[in-house]
Amino acid sequence: MPAPPAAAGPLPASYARYGPSHLDGEVEDIRDIEVAAPKAWAAGTAKTGLALILLPLHPLLVLGGLLFRGSSPKKTEKHYILGVRRSDGREEQARIEGDPLGALPRRGDYVSLWGSPRYGVLVVRRGYNHSVHAEIRVRRA
Questions:
Q1: Could you tell me which of 133, 141, 136 has the C-alpha nearest to residue 124?
Q2: How many other C-beta atoms can be found within 10 angstroms of the C-beta atom of residue 51?
Q3: How confident is the model at residue 100 (pLDDT cuts 50, 70, 90)?
Q4: Can you tell me the distance from the alpha carbon of 101 to that of 94, in angstroms, rounded to the nearest whole number?
Q5: CA dist., res. 123 & res. 120, Å (int)
Q6: What are the sequence ranges of the domains in the chain?
Q7: Which of 22, 37, 55, 58 could covalently link to 75 via disulfide, CB atoms 3.0 to 4.6 Å apart?
Q8: Class for domain 13-36+77-139, per CATH?
C-alpha cells in the first residue's frame, strides 16, 4: 500500500488554507480523453444579433450566409483521468478538466488533490505533486 514518500515532507504553507486534501495517494494510471467543449453562448448571441441588424439592410446576404455557411467544426478540450491508489488500498478516480498548470502527475507520483466530487469522481481544482514538489493547478477554459 502506498504511503507518502519519505522525502516528500509537509505540504507548502500556502496549502494550509485549503484544509485536508480530498484525495491523496499514488497515481497508478493516467489517461487523456477528448470531450466536446461547452458552446460559447456569447459568440452565438453576437452572430445572431449581427444577423438581425443586417437583415433589413441586406436580406439576401444574410439569408445566403445562414443557408450556405455549412457546419462549424466541433470544439473539443482535453481532460485527464487519474487513477489514484489511497494509503488504505482503495483506488479512486480524479479528473482534471481544463488546461493543467504546473506539474502534470505521472504514474508512480504521490499526489494530494483538492476538488469537488461529481458522480463518484473527484473533479480537481488544485493539487500538489509530492514526488516532484510542484503545484497542480487547472486553468478553466
A1: 136
A2: 14
A3: confident
A4: 16
A5: 9
A6: 13-36+77-139, 38-73
A7: 37
A8: mainly beta
